[in-house]
Amino acid sequence: MRRFLLRRLAWFALTVWAVITISFVLMRSVPGGPLSSDRTLHPSVEAAVNARYHLDWPAWRQYLQTLGPLNLDEHGLLGDRSAVFGGILALDLGPSLQHRDVSVNEIVAQSLPVSAALGVTALGWALLLGLAGGLVSALRPGTALDTTARVLSTLGLSLPNFVIASLLVLALAVALPIFPVAGWGSPAHLVLPGFALGAPFAAYVARLFRAGLLETLSQDCIRTARAKGVPWRAIVLRHALPGALVPVISFLGPAAAGILTGSLVIERIFTIPGTGSHFVAGALNRDYALAMGVTLVYTVAVYALNVLVDLAYALIDPRVELEKDA
Amino acid sequence: MLSMPSTSGARLALSTALLGVLGACVVAFALRSGRPRADFAFTGGGEIRSLDPHGVTGVPEGRVIALLYEGLVARNPHTLATEPGAAESWNVSPDGRTYTFTLRADARWSNGDPLLAADFEWSFRRMLEPATACEYASSLWLIEGAREFTTGLAADGTPRERDWSRVGIVAVQERTLQIRLERPTPHFWPLLSSHVFAPVHRASLEALRERHPRDWATHWTRPGTLVTNGPFRLVERRVGEVLRFERNEQYWDARNVALRTVDVLSVESWSSALNLYLAGELDWVDGAIPSSLVPELLGREDFDPRPYLGVYFYRVNVTRAPLERREVRAALATALRRKEICELVLKAGQQPAFSFLPPQAGDYRSPKTFGESSDYAQKLLVDAGLTDAEGKCDLRELELHFNTSEVHRDIAEVAAEQWRAALGLKVRLRNQEWKSFLDAQGKLDYDLSRSSWIADYADPSSFLDIWTTGHENNRTGWSNRQYDELVAAARSERDAARRRELYANAERILMHELPCIPIYHYVSQNLVDPRVGGFGQNALNEQSPKYWYWRSDEELASVRAQSMRRCEPVESHGPSAGLYPPSRAEERR
Prior knowledge:
- The structure holds two protein chains of two kinds.
- By secondary structure, chain A is mainly α.
- Chain A is 71% helix and 0% strand.
- Chain A is built from 13 helices and no strands.
- The longest helix of chain A has 36 residues, at 104-139.
- In chain B, strand 6 and strand 7 (176-180) form a beta hairpin.
- The radius of gyration of chain B is 28 Å and the shape is globular.
- In chain B, the strands form five sheets. In chain B, strands 8-9-10-1-11-18 form a six-stranded mixed β-sheet, with helices on both faces. In chain B, strands 13-17-12-16-14-15 form a six-stranded mixed β-sheet, sandwiched between helices. In chain B, strands 4-5-7-6 form a four-stranded antiparallel β-sheet, covered by helices on one side.
- At the A-B interface, helix 2, helix 4, helix 6, helix 9 and helix 11 of A face helix 1, helix 7, helix 8 and helix 14 of B.
């Protein structure tokens, strides 16, 4: 277990470094900069803004400054630290270049819980609907119930989430004003966006769970248990369920990552102040600091989720050994 | 009955329960800040750039600055006339260069400090200091010595030490501020009343810079820290969500401010903004309604597009063949049928543009220059030897460059088709995402490039200065000595009629040479609750939040009865009893 975590940590550091470097190079190789606007600045003013955000430095020096609180100057590698913004190593993502009076740390601190809440709701919907649908389908295969559940799951998989979102708003917020059309502030604000975001994942969970259950239920041990007179309910709950859940759990990691990074469209439609919109805006506005910050947050989140899923495997299925698995 | 679950079942149940609790905690944490609905809520789009009045340029930012700060003078939201702000009176010297302002004795900062002439002197100095990186610093350069102070260069271009005492801004007494201009400048008034000329609170900012030398900017504009002098003060800020303001009881005119709380919501998508408005969550949507939704809104009482001081045009790269020839540019300009673009694509009553200035630029009237005629356009090309007698066009394929957006694409498609039909010209469309687009335009990497210009104030200088040689917003490569001379002469001309004539002559040259092809003049697209009173209707779509109030049922009925506009009444979400400023509420009682 410890070796597994240590090894994952080493890979984590390497991944983060690669993400930082690639993002840095990509951000600076696209045309346009954080200061360009349809009203061009006077050159003397532009020079002053550039100096304030170190945009006048050579790229390698900006890279060092982004990476850590490094200011390679006449004072040595660490240089005059009071003059530069913090770096990633110091857990300071610097000021946003677009929203000039907020720091990226603050943007992340304010928006990440919102995205997380949305993600949790979406995941909740995905599990609730997916597991229920899968269970019904698997226990009554071939019936009308099964067909309905499968048709619904096909729909959920094939409809893009913004279509689902628009239909939901139309039906449950405009025609029947049960839920708010958009905005943030109460649990009611989470229901529709959570559902729209979670729907494709619910569909996938339903399929995985149905397949898993059907496979487990057709095994010899189940038949033996039935022959011995074990009640059907106990068989499903005690023997079939844990086994059938393994593929669902292994899907949860990628699902959580997908929900987190895929929330930007939903956040926009429902005007939810989450991280997703900053992810897009940071890149579009050439807000180097914000784009880097959000990319890093996503990197860390996706990595952590994957580690958690690996740990969950071991929890559910004693046959999985972490050392070998890693 | 269930039998005892197996070990893995127990673990499963336990971890499910734990995850559920954890999830609920996350949701509860994210939703912890509950806010009651504000008296007034509006949106101008996404998150604004800054609350520092010296660090912003955009319209949505200007709205927020207008809530928080007040300059020396203000603009009346109905007439755009200059009216007293923090200064209660002023006088101008006979030579038109020295302005002396007297500040109100009761003008105060939101923390109770008196607002003094020295605050304005220090604030203007801050704007001019290059380290502040104020984008509007150059507009202050009409003040004596200001340009030298920002650039550190003397008039002849030699480096010179910055010396504040040489700048014509002096707090002569505690409440008397004197500003001396380089030369008499008629548009100093509209400029001075724009939001960038707001004062900032020196003591709190300097204390903060002491404490956070590196990142003071991210600590300054916080609720509780930010000290301002406008009708409202900041009480909450959630990035990407909301800015909450409360009436500033220290404001000298607080008795005439009706609203107690104002929310500025950050809404990225205009269709969501529309939904929020229709659901009563927003009282005013200030921005671009998607043109596909405009027909749905036209005829509603709360949607009344008005002429707006902005022009949509195509820049022409005059450094590239064949566009360096005036005949080609003129052919392009005259071959368009702008009415079709306005009616088919835009639909909100935008007006075809045959001048660079919109018709509402103060007293100024644009000269009549060109019209639309495909025969004439064709003839221009034939005479220039670019089209043969059979009407076959020899011109190379041109590229029409625009930033990615549905409406720009629609307009570009219609224009390209019109050019093809009238002149046999091949036009290729090239769209780019905003920042790449700006980069290409700045480098003159285009043939024709979509542009727009919105005036800062209702004066020809706001439109015509940008076309002078080497101006950073020219971006066409066009240069004309006569034009430069006319604009320079107009800038310092004190006689209003003569000044208008100089600008008209300059615009005549511009519209003859056509480095820019005007397409249409904008309309403002406010979607505002009919019950909102004190809402400005003017060509700059300028608003003064201190005047906003809610009309009562009786007042709304009488306003409707007086209205000449035939429109479909809509239900209001505002309070039926109205919400009046404390002073007027007393009167009514």
